[in-house]
Design goal:
Blueprint lengths: L31 E5 L9 H7 L13 E11 L3 E3 L15 H4 L9 H11 L2 E3 L6 H10 L7 E7 L4 H8 L10 E7 L18 H16 L2 H5 L6 H6 L7 H8 L7 E5 L2 E2 L3 E2 L2 E4 L1
Parallel strand pairs: 1-6, 2-5, 2-6, 3-4
Antiparallel strand pairs: 1-10, 7-10, 8-9
Helix pairs in contact: 5-9
């Protein structure tokens, strides 16, 4: 199936917001966020993250009913949605400073909304998972009071990139009902190639793939984003496993005609992890 080209109706604009710049809004519809996180949990700088997903205080800033996070760290056979009223905080990483394991993100769940997501997507309700660091490490900067209900959606390892793109379309009605949708992963994510040093220079292939994705987003070329493996060796280096790339496809699929994209942060950490963050809408 060929995906429709929307390049003619999507603005080809790029914005890199400073911490002082207001986040763009799109009527009463919630934006979609594509957020990066890395193994050091540094993430997008908190000041930038706050602006690119801020609840805002202006008259056109829609209230947040809940957040739905598509997590690169919840891999399942079959799609699952977290249906617990009070999910636990999961520290799904190893070998880092003790204070990171003490972080708790006590946001409430949203079981009723989660069951609706299950109906929309064909996912099954899950009562065993919690908030992994793909969600809490980002959202604790965006909603530090942890007072906005949060649910997670898993990535089905049996599905291909286009299947995930198609599944994302079922979430579209949530944008008009106050649900902020976040895809949390990394465009480039090659842990085997990481350079554990400050100011490590990016690998040329990391820069090239990150720029290629940036340009495809600006062009609204979803077909190419779903078919990234056609890049061959470049894709193999940048995306050796696709769980951190796939959340981006959920953001791309939910973009509406006429909506631009704002890149609120960019850069390559430790040589091989892209920290590009984007807001759509």
């Amino acid at each position: 199936m060929n995906l429709p080209s929307r390049a003619a109706t999507w603005p080809r604009t790029v914005t890199t917001q400073s911490p002082e710049a207001p986040a763009p809004l799109c009527g009463r519809s919630q934006a979609i966020l594509s957020s990066a996180h890395d193994v050091t949990l540094r993430l997008c700088p908190p000041t930038v993250t706050l602006r690119f997903a801020s609840p805002g205080s202006g008259p056109n800033s829609p209230p947040k009913k809940a957040v739905l996070c598509v997590s690169a760290h919840w891999l399942t056979r079959g799609t699952r949605v977290l249906c617990l009223p009070r999910p636990r905080t999961i520290h799904d990483f190893y070998g880092f400073p003790d204070d990171l394991y003490a972080v708790e993100y006590p946001a409430p769940g949203a079981p009723e909304l989660a069951r609706e997501v299950a109906e929309l997507t064909g996912a099954s309700c899950d009562g065993a998972w919690g908030f992994d660091h793909a969600s809490w490490a980002v959202l604790r900067h965006v909603f530090p009071a942890a007072d906005v209900p949060l649910i997670e959606l898993s990535l089905d390892v049996l599905m291909g990139p286009r299947d995930h793109y198609d599944l994302a379309g079922a979430l579209a009605p949530l944008r008009d009902r106050g649900v902020l949708i976040v895809g949390s992963g990394n465009i480039v994510h090659n842990l085997a190639a990481i350079v554990w040093a400050d100011e490590a220079p990016p690998y040329p292939w990391a820069l090239a793939f990150d720029a290629w994705v940036r340009d495809r987003l600006l062009d609204g070329d979803d077909e190419a984003l779903c078919s990234y493996e056609a890049l061959g060796g470049l894709a193999d280096d940048a995306v050796p496993t696709n769980e951190h790339y796939l959340p981006l496809l959920y953001a791309a699929a939910l973009r509406r005609d006429g909506e631009g994209v704002a890149f609120t942060h960019e850069g390559i950490e430790m040589g091989s992890v892209s920290m590009r963050c984007a807001r759509i809408g």
